[in-house]
Design brief:
The chain is an alpha/beta fold. The protein has helices at about 5-10, 30-45, 60-75, 85-95, 130-140, 160-170, 190-195, 230-240, 265-280, 295-300, 315-325, 345-360, 365-370, 390-400, 440-455, and strands spanning about 20, 50-55, 80-85, 100-105, 115-120, 125, 155, 180-185, 205-210, 245, 255, 265, 285-290, 305-310, 330, 335-340, 375, 380-385, 405, 410-415, 420-425, 430-440. The protein contains 15 helices and 22 strands. Helix 2 crosses helix 3, helix 2 (about 30-45) crosses helix 5 (about 130-140) and helix 9 crosses helix 12. The protein is globular. Its cofactor is Mg(2+). Pfam families: PGM_PMM_I, PGM_PMM_II, PGM_PMM_III, PGM_PMM_IV.
């Protein structure tokens, strides 16, 4: 049996959706070996006999992935190493091989971080209530030994299979030629984009920061922050590209920039892909989280689909995808989920849909996306507060006479006249209140943001 660890130390790293922390301080090879052993015990109890493991380009990732594999094999399960991979490539491997998986990445976090995203066979998520709490408890107590024979390990490269699978889901054969600027942010997009998009004759790729470098020397690999889109925007304008794509560190999210260099809302991308999926399967269910623009459920309803609203977070989206049989789901954070991809998220698959939609008609991206952009939005605004519940109550009191309705699916969402709404959510891990506002015009959004923040920050 391994040495027990303190509950505080373990719970600081094993979070609601994944494992993540600072390498050498919170996470090391011994720790992830124990996590691997505990995960293997959990999967063995569910009759799995092997685990597929992939990792990103961070300097610490290969060693940690190998240590995790040692823990898995020590519990009698076999290991399939796929080496360098994007997170959605690992999900592909889990689905294609029909086995549990572990992806070593800290996504867009700085270089000193690393972590593990775990899934069951078929890329089904493992979260706090579906395995992570059990793993944390075992690591705290000390993982029991195993008396059987250790498992074996094999190494295989599934990159070309992953690329072929994705290209088989979206037909670009009739698309017009497109010049596509891509910022990989020194992350795993530099590994997957050449294989998936570089092999398509319709596309001419203009690469930016494709060198795999886990120190992120050019900018953070987090396109959700507008500062990290600046280089791509300049490249699009300079090169005359038809469109720009930006991937985050583990390349499971994709952000779009139009031909003028202006960012395209992930909600608009959700609406576009939803329309494409509904054209193939009329009446299907589309999942959207509660911060996604109202454009999405309105369009889905107009097209005869069934919009289903859920909380923010991939575990909730994936659960709803499974329960409803939804064909597609989208989040404001640019995570896009596909039934045909085992209900998992894939930024690359979303990118293929956008490129196909652009290529099958003659309008530029800005005009194409205008049909999917019906409202102005604030984006997410964070405020540090001492008492989130108190500040939320103060905001609700101030809007009591104007609120058409208030729901508490995730924080509070307040519906206002003239199609305006706002959501206030407390962070689960930090003393923050997160505000999102949407209205008909930017002026209305600005006025609401000012009013609400004056209360929140008073």
């Amino acid at each position: 049996m391994t040495v027990p660890r303190s509950a505080d130390a373990v719970n600081a790293v094993i979070k609601a959706y994944d494992v993540r922390g600072v390498v050498g301080e919170q996470i090391d090879a011994a720790f992830v070996r124990e996590v691997g052993a505990s995960f293997a015990r959990l999967m063995r109890a569910e009759h799995a006999n092997r685990v597929v493991i992939g990792h990103d380009m961070r300097a610490s990732s290969p060693e940690l992935a190998d240590a995790f594999a040692d823990g898995v094999r020590a519990q009698g399960l076999d290991v399939v190493h796929i080496g360098l991979a994007s997170t959605d490539q690992l999900y592909f491997a889990s689905g294609d091989l029909d086995c549990p998986g572990a992806m070593f990445t800290a996504s867009h976090n700085p270089a000193r971080y690393n972590g593990i995203k775990l899934c069951r066979a078929g890329a089904k998520p493992v979260g706090q209530d579906t395995g992570l709490a059990t793993i944390a408890a075992e690591v705290v107590a000390g993982v029991p030994g195993y008396e059987g024979a250790p498992g074996d390990a094999v190494r295989t490269d599934l990159l070309s299979d992953y690329a072929k699978f994705l290209r088989g889901l979206v037909d670009l054969d009739g698309a017009r030629p497109l010049t596509v600027a891509v910022d990989a942010g020194n992350g795993m997009g530099g590994h997957t984009v050449p294989e998936v998009l570089g092999g398509l004759r319709q596309l001419s790729i203009v690469p930016l920061y494709f060198e795999l470098d886990g120190t992120f020397p050019n900018h953070e690999a987090n396109p959700l922050d507008p500062a990290n889109l600046v280089d791509l925007q300049e490249l699009v304008r300079r090169s005359g590209a038809d469109i720009g794509l930006a991937f985050d560190g583990d390349a499971d999210r994709c952000f779009v920039v139009d031909e003028r260099g202006d960012p395209v809302s992930p909600s608009a991308i959700t609406a576009l892909v939803a329309a494409r999926e509904l054209a193939k399967e009329p009446g299907s269910t589309i999942i959207h989280n509660l911060i996604t623009s109202r454009t999405v459920p309105e369009l889905v309803t107009e097209l005869g689909g069934n919009p289903v609203r859920t909380r923010v977070g991939h575990s909730f989206i994936k659960q709803q995808m499974a329960e409803t049989g939804a064909v597609f789901g989208g989040e404001h954070s640019a995570h896009y989920y596909f039934r045909d991809f085992w209900g998992a998220d894939s930024g690359m698959l979303a990118a293929l849909h956008v490129l196909a939609a652009l290529g099958e008609q003659q309008r530029p991206v800005s005009e194409l996306m205008a049909a999917y952009t019906g409202y102005a939005a604030s984006g997410e605004i964070n405020s540090t507060v001492a008492d989130a519940a108190d500040r939320t109550a103060a905001v609700l009191a101030a809007f009591a006479d104007r609120a058409g309705s208030v729901d508490r699916l995730d924080g509070v969402t307040v519906e206002l006249p003239e199609h305006a709404w706002f959501n206030l959510r407390a962070s689960n891990t930090e003393p923050l209140l997160r505000l999102n506002v949407e209205a008909r015009s930017a002026a209305e959004v600005d006025a609401l943001v000012t009013e609400i923040l004056n209360i929140v920050r008073s």
